[in-house]
Write a structure and sequence with these properties.
With 438 residues, this protein is α/β, with parallel strands linked by helices. The protein is 35% helix and 19% strand. The protein folds into three domains: 5-83, NAD(P)-binding Rossmann-like Domain (Rossmann fold); 88-296, UDP-N-acetylmuramoyl-L-alanine:D-glutamate ligase (3-Layer(aba) Sandwich), CATH 3.40.1190; 305-436, Mur ligase, C-terminal domain (Protein-Tyrosine Phosphatase, Chain A, Alpha-Beta Complex), CATH 3.90.190.20. The strands form five sheets. Strands 6-7-5-8-9-10 form a six-stranded parallel beta sheet, covered by helices on one side. Strand 17 (362-368), helix 15 (373-379) and strand 18 form a beta-alpha-beta unit. Helix 1 packs parallel to helix 2 (31-39) and helix 6 packs across helix 11. The protein starts with a helix and ends with a helix.
């Protein structure tokens, strides 16, 4: 079910492994996926679900965008039909070592940085999950010795027997609560599934300064070797910060690296760098490769991406910040007076987390969405100038109007993109286009 990157990849792997395969998508399927399915002789349908046929399936691989509460999924559960994720399915046939990365924020940056380190070290490594190509498609058609896989909570929800050789948990802050009955603990439980089935030969890397993670550590029943990262130091193999240096303790003595040599700036990126370094260290990557990679990594598009400076006003694209905590990190890194553009599809957000930073750093607010009433109710009492708009063109124009020379205009939405835009990439591309048209 689902005919995007995840679903089409799972369909190809199933076909290669001898299954009778039928792919169904309630919406349209992109041409590139239709061609892939046709290439492998896989039957597919779009803009509908043939319910009777789907309910006869022996097993269903569900794309992560389809919620558990969808009526057809509920009917499959009632029949006792296994419903699994693409990652779970691909894991049955994967022979490579896996570095699996999750967290509310920083997943993509840490995944791409880890992949960069392993590539630089000469390892035969694939990139999968929320970035790169479908994990299942690569298992079906390519051969790698290692995979770096970015995993969302939605992908973790339908993983049962899959095991991460190295599991990385960056942080847990409220996100996607609309998919978890507005219960934060349900979302926490989903993230903690990254440790499932780990043995004493596996590794669990986590942010030890995150109180939500620390509370869950005693509940973990799997046996992965724990390697924390923290600003405070630690015991055993760990990453920490001391004397303005990133310090990585390891059996070979580890490494020290001045913070000003890291290519990624900001406190949140320091955590991402520590997690990636620990992952590489756990695969016995030499310190020189880790050090060089941490210093020359180019960063991630749509994450605190400088777009242009227009008459002294810097425009920054942070469209990937689709939750409140991610916006917090963006604001925390701002050093100039800031005009903040935020809005979209609210996921049960609590904006109190960013309130102090908004009061301290934001000179004006631009709310962008079909319904900005919740944002207006929350921020209006702060007496910061604001305006509501329903298009990117208007958002950029209004932000530019508020800004003065030396200011920064920051797109960091806090919300999902689905009311006005296809996804955060579409959001960011439109922002960049509008800025360049000023």
């Amino acid at each position: 079910m689902g005919g995007g990157e995840s679903g089409s990849g799972a369909a190809v792997l199933a076909k290669v492994k001898g299954f009778k395969v039928f792919l169904s998508d309630r919406g349209p399927i992109k041409d590139k996926y239709k061609k892939l399915l046709d290439q492998y002789g896989i039957e597919w349908e779009e803009n509908t679900h043939s319910e009777e046929r789907i309910l006869k399936a022996d097993e269903v691989v569900k794309s992560p965008g389809i919620p558990e509460k969808a009526p057809l999924i509920q009917k499959l559960h009632a029949l006792g039909t296994p419903v699994i994720s693409e990652i779970e399915f691909a894991g049955r046939y994967n022979t490579a070592k896996t570095v699996c990365i999750t967290g509310s924020n920083g997943k993509t940056t840490t995944t791409l940085l880890t992949y960069h380190i392993l590539q630089k070290a000469g390892l035969n490594v694939g990139l999968a999950g929320n970035v790169g190509k479908s994990f299942a498609l690569q298992v079906a058609t390519e051969h790698f010795d290692y995979y770096v896989i970015e995993l969302s909570s939605f992908q973790l929800d339908n993983m049962y027997d899959f095991k991460a050789d190295i599991a990385v948990l960056l942080n847990i802050t409220p996100d996607h609560l609309d998919r978890y009955e507005y219960q934060f603990q349900n979302y926490i439980n989903s993230k903690m599934r990254i440790t499932r089935n780990q043995t004493k030969d596996d590794v669990f890397i986590y942010w030890n300064d995150d109180e939500n993670i620390r509370k869950e550590l005693s509940k973990i029943t799997s046996q992965g070797q724990r390697k924390p990262f923290s600003l405070q130091g630690g015991e055993g193999i760990h990453a920490s910060v001391a004397n303005d240096k990133l310090q990585l303790s390891a059996e070979d003595g580890g490494l020290q690296m001045p913070l000003n040599e890291l290519s990624l700036k900001g406190q949140h990126n320091l955590y991402n760098s520590m997690a990636a370094a620990l992952s590489a260290c756990s695969l016995q990557v030499q310190n020189d490769y880790i050090r060089r990679s941490l210093s020359d990594f180019a960063g991630v598009e749509h994450r605190l991406e400088p777009v242009a400076r227009v008459r002294g006003v810097l425009f920054v694209n942070d469209s990937k910040a689709t939750n409140v905590n991610s916006c917090w990190y963006a604001l925390e890194s701002m050093t100039a007076p800031t005009v903040l553009i935020l809005g979209g599809t609210d996921k049960g957000n609590d904006y109190n987390e960013i309130k102090p930073l908004v009061q301290q750093k934001v000179k004006a607010l631009v709310f962008m969405g079909k319904d900005n009433s919740k944002l207006e109710r929350f921020f209006a009492p702060m007496n910061i100038p604001y305006v509501s708009v329903d298009s990117m063109d208007a958002a950029v124009e209004e932000a530019y109007h508020f800004a003065s020379e030396g200011d920064t205009v920051l797109l960091s939405p806090c919300c999902a993109s689905f009311d006005l835009f296809k996804n955060y990439e579409n959001w960011g591309e439109l922002f960049k286009r509008c800025v360049k048209e000023l």
